[in-house]
Specification:
InterPro entries: Galactokinase, Galactokinase_CS, GalKase_N, GHMP_kinase_C_dom, GHMP_kinase_C_sf, GHMP_kinase_N_dom, GHMP_knse_ATP-bd_CS, Mevalonate/galactokinase. 39% of the residues lie in helices and 20% in strands. Bound molecules: alpha-D-galactopyranose (GLA).
Length: 475
């Protein structure tokens, strides 16, 4: 396979340090913060319905290095991203003396601004602390793996470290408060009416566990994932989604309309499908379908978490397929490429289940697969997807050189490897360095895969896929 690795955490850190030293010679950053992306195993589009979701952290994320600026007269902060995928403008200046409003461009800066603005609501104006930071991420942008939440949570962690002891105990954030603050930043500055899942997972997930989150009261339960013979495989269709584009908000609205028509605050309160059936005449066919997805998905997620805790992978997998079908037919947030990847996975012996993951309209699928079948599953997805690409888009052979699928492995295993390594790696930095890592597991040797994400080149159709996704979702 032609492979291109995405950065490991050590590589992210090295790139950040190198850039920092290049840009600010004779200076060293003193703070390093990290927050992981996530993959949602099941429970899609139900967090904003107060439902259950079942995600886990993945070993890609966002890292920020930086330091406080203590020149007495300055109120200005400097923020730069190393990401290649965010458009032209890579840096911004933020003046803490001004009001911190969302900006039109560059869009990525709103995640930083939003978290900063909401964080500063807790800090006395006289105590505002200027800083400079560099940001790097290994989460594919727009892939449904929480690229934005990981920036928000890393930023919030950076600020917690920046303010450190100067915050009184009632100014400090619990992990749930931190998730809520970051979620609010996304809603108010990125204009996405999202639920709490992504930020919550980035703040609270821990190694070797998936997290069953009850989004009604923001409590959660860790479900151990310690079977070394079972893997979670994340496959990126490279169809890019953009949640801000309105389709997500439309789904949130549809669900709220259904809940109101049924006389509830949120769809979580609907206890049976019968209740929905009885009120079918009151709502449009679309509202009915959206509600049916949310109500059944909440039920599926509770049952699935129970099945996983009993190592019943067959049952878990069955529910994953059901979830995908419901997202595809009732919620209409899948696309042909995602459906194709799910069907390809389903055709492989040893695959328990597969589904689209995240907001949809492109992005990734997640597959639960026996370790012994991982190779076969990747091969099948790679070859089948390539064939399908060609059906969607007849093309010249000379185009055959671009990335189409990215694959990320997570063993359900109890290895502590990543956490230990990265904590050590950071001790080398100057004082005040703290590393916050929540790592689920990865590593696979047999397939020559050393990194968490693995890009497979098969067809130069990235741009066309963007167009297709627009057509399919009517964005
Ligand atoms: C996005 C949102 C989440 C959640 C998922 C769909 O990732 O940020 O809050 O709604 O979509 O499950």
């Amino acid at each position: 396979m032609t492979a291109e690795k995405t950065a490991t955490l050590e590589e992210l850190k090295a790139a950040l340090l190198e850039s920092y030293r290049e840009e600010f010679p004779n200076d060293e950053p003193t703070i390093c913060a990290f927050a992981p992306g996530r993959v949602n195993l099941i429970g899609e589009h139900v967090d904003y319905n107060d439902g259950f979701v079942f995600p886990m952290a993945i070993p890609v994320g966002t890292m920020i290095v930086g330091k406080a600026l203590n020149e007495p007269t300055t109120t200005k902060c400097y923020v730069r991203t190393l990401s290649k995928d965010v458009g032209e403008q890579k840096s911004i200046e933020i003046d803490l003396a001004n009001e911190l409003a969302p900006i039109k461009s560059p869009k990525w800066a709103n995640y930083v601004l939003g978290v900063l603005a909401h964080f500063l609501e807790r800090v006395k104006p006289s105590k505002k602390q200027p800083f400079r930071i560099l940001i790097a991420t290994s989460v594919p942008i727009g892939g449904g793996l929480s690229s934005s939440a990981s920036v928000e949570v890393a930023m919030c962690t950076f600020l917690e470290l920046l303010y450190g002891n100067s915050l009184s105990s009632n100014q400090q954030l619990s992990k749930v408060d931190k998730a809520l603050l970051c979620c609010k930043a996304e809603q108010t500055y990125a204009n996405v009416p999202c639920g709490i899942m992504d930020q919550y997972t980035s703040c609270l997930a821990k190694a070797d566990h998936a997290l069953l989150i009850d989004c009604r009261d923001n409590t959660s339960q860790y479900i151990p994932m310690i079977n070394k013979n079972v893997c979670v495989l994340v496959t990126n269709s490279n169809v890019k989604h953009e949640l801000g584009a309105g389709t997500y908000a439309e789904r949130v609205h549809n669900c709220q309309v259904a809940a109101n028509l049924l006389g509830h605050k949120k769809l979580r309160e609907v206890t049976s499908l019968k209740e929905l059936e009885n009120a079918r005449d009151k709502m449009s066919p679309t509202t009915y379908k959206r509600a049916r997805h949310a109500i059944t998905e909440i039920q599926r997620t509770e049952i699935a978490a129970e099945a996983l805790s009993k190592n019943d992978y067959a049952e878990f997998g069955r529910l994953m397929y059901e979830s995908h079908q419901s997202l595809r037919d009732d919620f209409e947030v899948s696309c042909e490429e995602l459906d194709q990847l799910v069907e390809l996975a389903r055709s492989v012996d040893g695959v328990y289940g597969s589904r689209m993951t995240g907001g949809g309209f492109g992005g990734c699928t997640v597959t639960l697969v026996a370790k012994s079948s991982v190779g076969k599953c990747i091969e099948t997805m790679k070859n089948g997807y390539k064939e399908k690409c060609q059906q969607f888009h007849p093309r010249n052979d000379s185009d055959d050189d671009d990335t189409q699928i990215q694959i990320c492995f997570s063993y359900l295993s109890s290895s502590k490897f990543p956490l230990q390594i990265y904590q050590k790696a950071l001790i080398g930095m100057s004082c005040g360095c703290v590393f916050v890592a929540v790592i689920s597991l990865f590593l696979t040797q047999s397939l020559d895969i050393q990194s968490s994400f693995y890009k497979i080149r098969c067809s130069k159709r990235t741009v066309d896929y963007l167009l297709i996704s627009n057509i399919l979702t009517g964005m």
